[in-house]
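2024-03-11 09:14:02 INFO worker-7 job=invfold-0412 stage=load source=structure_tokens
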């Protein structure tokens, strides 16, 4: 469904990603993990068209999207939920959600989507007139994810949804992602908490210094020595 082939990308003179190749099949739940500064967010920005690759190819469904604008990529069905959510603080929950559906012209479809996300996050429904800028961190995360869903994405790119949330809320966000995936949404998740990411997802890519260091089924990677030593804090005795 989505495939990166030897993608090189960065910011101006600074190259951050080196020959990234990764694949997300329809219906999969994939995680992308790695240390701070490895290039995880940069990978999601490249897929969503915010930065253009220096070289390489990005295929989504039947298109090569590496030259598309972010709007065109959203229209193709790729939705990017950024770390800070990019919400409009002076606008209500409902208006922020409607902004997320800007590519949808059909009013009924918009309304249907609104009902769908309010059903997914009843807390947002209760506060739909509240300004986004006055929401708690957890509520803002819910709104960011909900807004990402308003465009009926075929694939959802989610950057660190658990960051800054209390453990209880973290499990709630992950349960929601799992539910979305069960309902057919393909997800590429960037996550700091490697243990959780590996338990939640089907396959995982490990990014280190801008390169894919390892990839495989999440279950297998949970048993991998490099992953255990570097990310899980479980050191096995010789
Ligand atoms: N707008 C930018 N301009 C210049 N350099 C940037 C920019 N954004 C990120 N970088 C650099 O690119 C590298 C990769 O950053 P990126 O945000 O992709 O890492 P990350 O894996 O998401 O890290 P984290 O886990 O901390 O979120 C870092 O060295 C960072 O300083
Ligand atoms: Mg990041």
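2024-03-11 09:14:09 INFO worker-7 stage=emit residues=238
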């Amino acid at each position: 469904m989505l495939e990166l082939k030897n993608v090189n990308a960065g910011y101006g003179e600074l190259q951050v990603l080196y020959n990234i190749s990764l694949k997300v099949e329809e219906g999969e739940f994939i995680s992308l993990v790695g240390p701070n500064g490895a290039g995880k967010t940069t990978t999601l920005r490249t897929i969503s068209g915010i930065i253009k690759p220096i070289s390489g190819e990005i295929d989504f469904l039947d298109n090569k999207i590496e030259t598309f604008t972010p709007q065109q990529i959203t229209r193709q069905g790729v939705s990017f939920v950024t770390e800070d959510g990019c919400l409009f603080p002076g606008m209500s929950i409902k208006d922020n959600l409607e902004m997320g559906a800007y590519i949808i012209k059909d009013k009924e479809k918009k309304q249907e989507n609104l009902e769908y996300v309010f059903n997914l996050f009843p807390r947002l429904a209760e506060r739909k007139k509240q300004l986004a800028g006055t929401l708690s961190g957890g509520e803002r995360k819910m709104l960011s994810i909900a807004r990402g869903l308003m465009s009926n994405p075929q694939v959802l790119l989610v950057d660190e949804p658990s960051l800054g949330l209390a453990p209880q809320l973290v499990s709630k966000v992950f349960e929601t992602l799992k539910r979305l995936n069960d309902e057919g949404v393909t997800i590429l998740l960037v996550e700091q908490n490697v243990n959780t990411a590996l338990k939640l997802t089907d396959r995982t890519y490990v990014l280190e210094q801008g390169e894919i260091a390892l990839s495989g089924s999440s279950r297998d990677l949970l048993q991998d020595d490099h992953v255990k030593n570097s990310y899980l804090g479980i050191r096995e005795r010789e």
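2024-03-11 09:14:09 INFO worker-7 stage=report msg="The pocket of adenosine-5'-triphosphate (ligand 1) is lined by residues 11, 14, 16, 34, 36-42 (CB under 6 Å)."
2024-03-11 09:14:10 INFO worker-7 job finished
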